[in-house]
Amino acid sequence: AKKLGRNRWQFYHGAMNEETRERLRIEGALRNALERGEFVLHYQPQVDLASGHIVGMEALLRWRHPELGVVPPQRFIGLAEETGLIVPIGAWVLRTACAQARAWNTMREADGLAPLRVAVNLSARQFAQPDLVASIAAVLDGTGLPAACLDLELTESLFVDDVAQAVDLLHALKALGVALSIDDFGTGYSSFSYLRTFPIDVLKIDRSFVADIASDADEAAIVVSIIALARNLKLRVIAEGVESTAQLDFLRAHGCDEMQGYHFSRPVPAEEFERMIRSGHAC
Ligand code: C2E
Ligand code: CA
Ligand code: CA
Ligand code: CA
């Protein structure tokens, strides 16, 4: 039994080392990634369901590692949060996305087209930075993007720590003129209470609810209710993860404002997104 115990320990120990090495390797690489210009943003169109026109885009981070290839956010955002690296990375995302949106809107204005909104994901660490509001104001100022063209996507996990402080912060952000979205809406535990407490503009229905709307009556009922809730509270409502025509038809029939998903387009590099908006691609 002793021997088995030791072997087990050795096995466990070995696995830990392997995992730790991998973490340290990614963390080290992550530290250098910004300077080396290894991050890129992909953009996923947000489509107005009534007109079929692209009205905005969500900026989604990608890491092009020279050896690991394209690393998806799920594999490094957590580590970037833990180490605090998400703060400079997030600042880069915000600057890059706003500058890109401004450039596209200048191009569209010349063609007589309406400006696009850009949605940027904010992490908990960024949310906790004392200079968050000032830094966002500086980015809007520096890029010339009107505040009304920026959506900040927040998850409800950002609100749990200090509610009163979060309320103040959201009011200060709103005072800049930006829109505040609740990402992954419906997946938290207190969705209703924070709708009453926080000055939110947009609900993004989590894709786990959208997945089965065309086949599951319960999921369909939930999505219909979220859309009705948004309407009654005068919030914009966006469905994420729309992959099929059946889902699209359902959402349109029930008055959802916008949709985002593979059915229309995956997140794509900036050049490809630009081709999409130039060609007036519609669904
Ligand atoms: P999210 O904010 O919920 O972003 C939506 C995710 O759903 C994206 O994954 C997108 O590619 C994916 N998606 C879009 N349409 C569909 C669809 O029709 N079907 C399916 N199955 N998936 C779809 P992605 O780009 O891998 O990002 C994952 C998460 O990483 C994001 O979830 C967000 O939480 C985080 N993230 C991405 N970029 C940033 C960033 O710049 N800053 C921060 N803090 N987090 C980010
Ligand atoms: Ca998001
Ligand atoms: Ca989401
Ligand atoms: Ca999600």
Automatic annotation (TrEMBL):
Domain (EAL): residue spans on this chain: 23-281
Domain of life: Bacteria
Localization: Membrane
Region forming the signal peptide: none
Record's protein name: EAL domain-containing protein
Organism: Pseudoduganella albidiflava
